[in-house]
Amino acid sequence: MTTPFKQQTVLITGASRGIGAAVAQRFAAVGMNIVIHYNQGHEAANEVARSCMQQGSKVLTISADIRSKEQLLKMQEKLAKHEMLPDILVNNAGISHYGMLADVTEEQWDDLMNVNLKGTFFTSQIFMERMVQLKYGRIINVSSIWGISGASCEVAYSTTKGGINAFTKALAKELAPSNVTVNAVAPGAVDTAMMNHLAAEEVTAIQSEIPAGRFAMPDEIASLVYFLALPESSYITGQIISPNGGWLT
């Protein structure tokens, strides 16, 4: 790989808010080229883009439904036209669902699988081809602590994240000969909008179970993603790393 790290391009899916936005801003802090993908959060994505550009990054925002391979292929064409194909892919886009498995509908189940699992499959398959050709690349999947341990009332969501963990381990072995690393970051509880369904007493109860005594901040997760993307992290692959404040050891 001849492109200096700070001149590389990173594509973050679901980057209009939360962890994805924090990841974009972390890479922008060193002036990298940033592709901010979003589905519907147009103004939020633009706000993240403005923040990144203020730090000196070249930024492109782009909308696509990651459930659609056709839309992602069009996104790939646009990125190629702008010379913004990623050296680093952060598969962050995802949705959650909270409720008893007995109440999960087939439509809800399919939507979780299509966004969280199929979306990761599509984006990885589409963008890893160039990485293999260049003999360099980073794929970093955002998973969850529940993909490791499972969570009551989040069976469907846990299933998708467990699938991402298995996908990560297997793809890492497949791409290692091409000098492309594949890892997953599986956070514990993070202070994002995804936690908004919790009542105040539920938040307090969860925090009391975490040895660190608090939720993670998105920028703490972003720092780990950034570390895994560094050239000197080239021997780390196939790993599921869970920053969770000691919640799961």
From TrEMBL:
GO terms for molecular function: oxidoreductase activity. SUPFAM superfamilies: NAD(P)-binding Rossmann-fold domains. GO terms for biological process: monocarboxylic acid metabolic process. Keywords: Oxidoreductase. Belongs to the short-chain dehydrogenases/reductases (SDR) family. This is SDR family oxidoreductase. It comes from Paenibacillus psychroresistens.
